[in-house]
Structure formats: structure tokens, C-alpha cells
Amino acid sequence: xxxxxxxxxxxxxxxxxxxxxxxxxxxxxxxxxxxxxxxxxxxxxxxxxxxxxxxxxxxxxxxxxxxxxxxxxxxxxxxxxxxxxxxxxxxxxxxxxxxxxxxxxxxxxxxxxxxxxxxxxxxxxxxxxxxxxxxxxxxx
Length: 140
Known about the structure:
single chain; 4 helices; alpha+beta; 6 strands
């Protein structure tokens, strides 16, 4: 299953970088659960994940994710991403600044039948907010 999971994850990166509804239907289980930082309830299914991508794209229309590292074992995958984009829209109430970001994220996935069924994402939101000037850097 490890080799299959790696193929699915590479397709998943294509999905998150394009926001393709077709890829969402292919790669995201209708019963999938996505635990999103700052949200009391998880997002669900392909529509839930498309909403997460839409939220990120509303603040960073050019956002792209690069898969830096991946470890796969049985039905689980750990992945480290770098998110890059330009702050051209409101994000967490912060008006557009035009600043670019490069933010790390550590995500943990569970897959079944070639689809994602669960994600626990841990993006560096503090680092992102510091990069767009919403939070002062340490010592400022």
C-alpha cells in the first residue's frame, strides 16, 4: 500500500494546486474528515476540502503547495509541505498586503481504497500571520 499511497499523494498535490473538482471527486472520499486548525468542527468530503482550498485562495490567489517530504506506512502518510503565495485578498481579517509567504505545514493523512479519508493539518499559521504583518515578529 505504501507505493500506492505515494501515487495518491502526488495526485493530491496536483489537486490542491489546481482546485480541480474532478480530482477532488477522484481523490477525496465522500466520507472524508478534515480537521482544520481554528475550526470547531471538521470539514467533510470533497466539498469540504474544496472549501479549505477556496479559503486559502481567497487570501492568496496564486498559492501553490510543494511536497517536500513524505513518509508512508500502511494506511497513513505524513507529509511536509511548503505553501507559497502572495497576499492579494483578505485573510483572517487582514486586508491584502501584497507580501509573499513561504510557510511550512505538517499534515497527517489516512487513506483507504486510493482515497483520502482523513487529514490532520498543521500549517504554521503564526509564521504566515507574521509574514503578512498581522502579528509582530518576536522581540518587536
